[in-house]
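Saturday, quiet lab. Running sequence design on the structure tokens for the scaffold JK sent over.
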């Protein structure tokens, strides 16, 4: 078993906080960009013109 500190991590472009690898992302880690559904939704809302 790996320690949490040994897991790969990324920085979320929306909230700019680090997040670590999760087992549910094991097959698609390269495609994961956001730390949560909330950040993903906030990104798409900010991309829309007012």
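Result came back. Writing it out in full:
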């Amino acid at each position: 078993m790996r320690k949490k500190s040994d897991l790969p991590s990324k920085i979320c472009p929306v909230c700019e906080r680090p997040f670590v690898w999760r087992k549910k992302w094991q097959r698609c880690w390269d495609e994961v960009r956001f730390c949560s559904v909330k950040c993903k939704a906030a990104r798409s809302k900010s991309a829309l013109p007012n």
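Notes for JK: Residues 21 and 39 are 16 Å apart (CA to CA). The longest strand covers residues 9-11. Ask whether to fix the surface positions before the next round.
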